[in-house]
Amino acid sequence: MRRVRKMTKKIVAIDQYIEKLNAFPETRWKFYKRSNSNSIYVRDGLDPTRNTRIPLKKYRNDVESDCQKIFLRIIDLGQQDWSLNEEESTPKSGKWGELNKKVKAFLTARNKFSTNKNFFGNLNSLEKQNVPFRWTKIKLWVYEKKPAQKTFCHRIDTLSQIQKYFLQESGECPYWLPDEELKAIRRIHNEAIRAKNKGLQKTENTKIRAVVEMQEAEKYFDRYIDDYDWQCWALAMLCCYGLRPHELWYIKEDRKNFLFVPGRLTKSKEDRVTFPIYMHWIEKYKLLENLKKYQSMLREFSPPVITDMNNKSIIISVTDPALYESTGRWEGQKNSDLGNWFNKNTIGWWKKGIRKMPEFRGYVPGKNGQKTSSMMTAQPYDLRHSWAIFLATSNQINIPIESRAKAMGHDRVTHEKKYQRWIDQRKLIDKDIDSIVIPDLRAA
Questions:
Q1: Residue 229's closest CA among 287, 274, 300, 279?
Q2: Residue 265 shares a structural domain with residue 404
Q3: 148 and 228: one domain?
Q4: pTM score, whole prediction
C-alpha cells in the first residue's frame, strides 16, 4: 500500500501582513513572496505585467519586525514611487574595495597595527576573490580553511569586525552577515578544537621552544660578547627580565633594579614592572649601565612608530619625555617590525646556511615539562619563555604566580595556559611542599 505523505503549508510571518494589506486596496505596492527565498519582495500594483519587483534583501519574510516595517512603509507611500534608500540598497558583488576602505579606517582607529594584521589580510582576500555579498558564499570562503585551525578562527574574527563596523554605523548587522550564523560556525570551530585536544598530551600541537638555562647562557655570552656586544646585552636582558624583544625599545630603569614597561606602547594592556632573576648579570654584563647606550642604538637602527591612540596622524618621538608622563595617550604601532628586525640581527636569522650570530642552544622540554637530553636552536622569544620556566621551578626564588604573570604583562589564566604545559610537574609539586611550613602544635 502506497503511503501518502501529509503536506503542511509552511506559515511565515509575511502571510499575516499580506492579509492585512488586503484591507488597504488603495496602496500601490504589494508584498510578493518567493518560494525559494526568505527575502522580502514588493511589486508595483500599477504595472499590468506585474514584472516590476523590488528585492529588499536586507529584510526577511520570516521575521515579524521586518515584515511590519515594510508593511508600514507601503501604507505610508500610498501611490508614490518606491525609491531604495541607502539602508535598503543591496551591495553588489565586487564592491569589497569600497567597504574595505571604511572597515580598515574603522579598525585603524580602534586597534594597534599588529592587531589588525590578520584582519587586513582577510579583507584583502575577500576583495581579491570577489566574494559575493551572500552568506552562503561568505561561508564557503570561511570553510576554505579547516575548523580548529587558527586561519579558520581569523576569518571568523574578521567577519565579526565587519559586523562591529556596521553596528557602529547603523546599529544592525548586514543581512548577508547574520549574527546567529556566524556564532554557529564559531561554535563548530570551538567544538573542533575540543575534539582535537581531547586525550592529547599537553605539549602536542603546540610550538616547542628551547629552554635556555643560566649556565648555558653565560657560556654563550662570555664567548661572544666581544664580537657581538649589543646583541649579547640585548639577549641577556631578555633572559634576565623576561622581556619581549620589541620591549627593549621602550623600557626604562625603575627602583631596586626593576624595569618599567609602558603598556600601550608594547603588547601589554597596562603599564607594568619586571624584575631580574640573575642579579649578578646586572654587573657582569652591565645590563642597566648600558641600557641608554644600546637602547639608543636600537632606536636608531629601527625607529619605532608611536601615535596618539585617538588620532593616528599625531606621531610622537620615542625620546619625548611626554611619552612616559601620559602613557595612556600613546600606543606603539608595528611592533612586529621591531621584533622581526631584532630576529634578523641576532640569533633568529638564518639564510642560506649563514647566521648573523653563532647558534644559541637550549634543551627540549619533554611532554611533562621535564628536562631532556635533546637540544635545539633557541630563538629570541624563547629567552622570555625560559625566564617563566625558571621562576616556576626554582627552589631559590619563591614568587607568587600572580606576580610572575603580571611582570610578563598578562593575567594568571594566560600565564598558566602558555607556560604551565612546559614546566616539570614534579618540580612544581616539590616547590609547593617546600613553600608550606607546618608548625609543631605540641611545641606551641
A1: 287
A2: yes
A3: no
A4: 0.62
